[in-house]
């Protein structure tokens, strides 16, 4: 029987600051190239988050739509939390990474409640952390591009999945990037982050397949093109 | 002061040219410092004032279209060269065009300004009218978010003395009508059936085209085909043969005509529509270069996802043997290349053309194409090699889609190798 994974993309219109849609393209293609079927659901404001989502994707946002998304996200919170606890694989970039945390403190000290799914807190800052990034991770070097001013702090630093080689990472202070909790990968990295890091993309795919089918049995792909792009990216200045 | 500053500026420009440099920033910078009122004093000489053209895509071409249509009416038009759309670049353009006695013998100025610079310029000098083209995602690392960009354009139209030209199909631009407060608005746009050609970012992400129209525009694009377009101008329908190809240029022409209605209401619109026929592409915007070995090479600037998507339609008009994509990631290109993933390249699948990638991010581009199931025959970050391979005699005709600094590099190499290419816009 052929295997199928259900990829749900949260707020593809509202929460998409530059190219995070690419993560969906990368996952879909890498599954298709291996003969795994992919069902894609675009989940916008007012849409139901599918119960059988295997992979949930989220990206960065515009300030102006953030409030609309926050209200809608509150309605999706319990289902998202349940999916997280059940081990659904999630990749939450930038704005969505922050929203999944416990709280966000704005520049004027306003305390905004987050979804409380990730054990993290974010403080607004006046530092724009912007530029090419590289992190050391359990899956090899991961390259990307960050563009944020929020500084995210993890309750438990061991949850970070990357050590900063280049860039600011979570907060520019502790040299850590991202958060891995249950199967949720939070990150500040665009690029899109999965596009030049096939090993990282496959880690997400593997986890989703293992959760659903008990094993991943991932066929290896020829990643020459991806790795060449990663190599160039790594050589570019910050 | 006016005379002294002009002479001073011309001296600096002359000095730079002796040093073999084509600087536009330095004279402007120095004049700004020593004669802060220079801009106002000089521009006040223009009887018909200053028009600002702003928005994410189409500024250069639309500025060129408006300027040429004004010239076709016998007006003397001052304009700023591409790439110098900063206040000080505009000052340099003024210095160059002024007489030694500091006189500007022009009737009207049309200046292209990117959103951030347009605000600074409009704060300094009130334009008579503003043409607001569109707001798309562009080099976010420079301007921040798209709504911020719309706010910037709002600040510019607020400074317009008498009129504004707005895009009826761009909801963020259309919303600026609230700033009209008695100023005349001339709308341009396209017909519903063309929506598929004007997919904006929101629609791409939602994977469905949505037609948005605020009002029925005065100038409306009804159809586009290679070499011609169909327009409705007020009540009259026109079929216009054009040299400027592409859907993006078609909508730029609609915007240009709307600006003519606003700026020169007395103009005969039939004549104006006729004048569109001879307008040639601006620097790197669908330019055609004929090389000595017989190869016709087309250059198409791409700066952001929406512009790239429009530009890709160009491959339908010519049977290209080779398609090149040259992506640089310098500051002027946008350091973040994530935007390539907001462009769908599957249109290439219908073609037999060989694909090559170039620029500092040639490898990224090849990777992007791989995920649309496209094979890149050659990945060549070195420009001279890339261009040499792109222009082999067997590669006729060829097209290169290139980011801004990639285009500058290619232009320089082409000029170096072949003195005869047209240097329009330079």
Percentage of residues in DSSP E strands of chain A: 25-35%
Give, in spatial order, the strands making up the sheet with the most strands of chain A: 2-1-3-4-14-13
Number of helices of chain A: 5
The CATH topology of the largest domain in chain B comes to UDP-N-acetylmuramoyl-L-alanine:D-glutamate ligase
User: Tell me, what's the shape of chain B?
Assistant: globular
Chain-averaged pLDDT of chain A? 93
At CATH level 3, the topology of chain A is Rossmann fold
- How many domain units of chain B? 2
State the total count of DSSP E strands of chain A: 14
CATH C-level class of chain A is: Alpha Beta
Mean pLDDT of chain B: 88
How is this structure best described in words?
The complex is a heterodimer of chains A (238) and B (426). Helix content of chain A is 29%, strand content 29%. Chain A has 238 residues and is α/β, with parallel strands linked by helices. Chain A has one domain: Rossmann fold (3-Layer(aba) Sandwich), CATH 3.40.50.880. The mean pLDDT of chain A is 93. Chain B is an alpha/beta fold. Chain B folds into 2 domains: 277 residues, 3-Layer(aba) Sandwich (UDP-N-acetylmuramoyl-L-alanine:D-glutamate ligase); 133 residues, Mur ligase, C-terminal domain (Protein-Tyrosine Phosphatase, Chain A). In chain B, helix 14 links the parallel strand 13 and strand 14.
Q: What are the main properties of this structure?
A:
heterodimer, A: 238 residues, alpha/beta, Rossmann fold, 6-stranded mixed sheet, 4-stranded mixed sheet, 5 helices, 29% helix, 29% strand, globular, B: 426 residues, UDP-N-acetylmuramoyl-L-alanine:D-glutamate ligase, Protein-Tyrosine Phosphatase, Chain A, 2 domains, 9-stranded mixed sheet, 16 helices, 15 strands, disordered C terminus
